[in-house]
Input
Amino acid sequence: MHDVHNGESARPRRAVFMVNPKARQGDSCVAAVRGVLERGGIEIDAAPLESAENLSDMIRRRAGTCDLVVIGGGDGTLNSAAKGLFDTGVPLGVIPLGTANDFARTLGIPADPVAAARLIVGGTPRLVDLGEVNGHPFLNVASIGFSADLARELSGAAKKKWGKLGYAITAARILLQSRLFTAYIEHDGTIETVRTLQASVGNGRHYGGGMTVAQDATADDGTLDFYSLEVDHWWKLLLLAPSLREGTQSRWNEVRAFRTTEVVIRTRRPRAVNTDGELTTWTPAHFTIRPAAIRVYAPATPPGRAFASSRRFSPRTS
Output
């Protein structure tokens, strides 16, 4: 794609540049980001996201005429592009413009949009895993229970106006109303029956605007990290909060945690599944991992790698 002939310099890279107009950090920095990309030798083909065309369909349609896709938006926007990126193999450049930007944090992509653009100009794409539940891809975490209820209640308008404060206010209200539900967890030849507030399956490291799936989780370890919050009082979840942020929740007796490559969650009645902040499917939920599925411009050493040799916690048997 970038050959040099007869001493001539390689042709510019061509990028499809898509920005979510509803992203929390939208218009203010788009011109600066575009300037960095163009000065770095990237030819821009702007594609508006207001159209009714599915984002993954747009990527598939333009894959033959571009060298990379640059997306400005949050985790929901990136999630909607995941299938198209997987199908085409076109590398992704991320400009974090959302509320939480958990995928960018997982990969160590700078939070500053202009710095993220510089990384795309000078960086090299690396392979990243993709989680999947009932055929729907997810980059960060898929959850059933409390976080799905939160996703249903937290409107896009509230996220844009209040940011992370919107998460906290809505989460507190829903937490007071939440009740445990019965789930049947099938993995690695076993079936466990649990009463849980939330069951989560992580592909990456961060989710929910600051939570951590597991202390040593990365987005390229080829595995899924599961945990179930089996707390019977809301105040216990407050005690757990620091561990949920650090990714050390598996040390608590009220948390069932394990690492796997496939898990099925069944419930007595259908429950919504939250994938990267969007409700996309229902239980029964079949989770799998697609290792090294997409290419993303990101630093070579992701956060969490330093924990790769630390002790993992086995599934509880009680």
Q: What stands out?
A: The mean pLDDT is 85.
